[in-house]
Amino acid sequence: YTGENEEKKRKFETEYKKFLAELRIKYPYTEILVLYGFMENTLLKSVEAAVNAYIKATGDNKVYYMELDGVKKGEILGASGHPGAKMHEERAEKIGKKIKEITGWK
Fold first, then answer.
1. Which residues lie across from 77 on neighbouring strands?
2. Within 10 Å of residue 55's Cβ, how many Cβ atoms?
3. What is the pTM of this model?
4. pLDDT truncated to tens, each residue of the chain (106 aa)?
């Protein structure tokens, strides 16, 4: 990861913006929802900064960012520290609400 290395953070953000641009080329009419933070949040600020910079630079109003809740104290984990079923259900509910907000689905 980038750690506290500012040069690596900038490089990551630059490459992430390129990734979003590639997605847009391949899927020109699709809403893109970037989700981050479920397992860990090491790159949280960099991902959010990259998404916001991409939106600002391109004016693409179909790209969204959503920070997911990380593991909370007392939550039951699955194998090797991965989120358990209940955690998946809770996050899925929040993601579903965001998708409904973006698309107008009911």
1. 83
2. 17
3. 0.87
4. 787 888 999 999 999 999 999 999 999 999 999 999 887 788 899 999 999 999 999 999 999 999 998 777 777 777 877 888 888 899 999 999 999 999 999 8
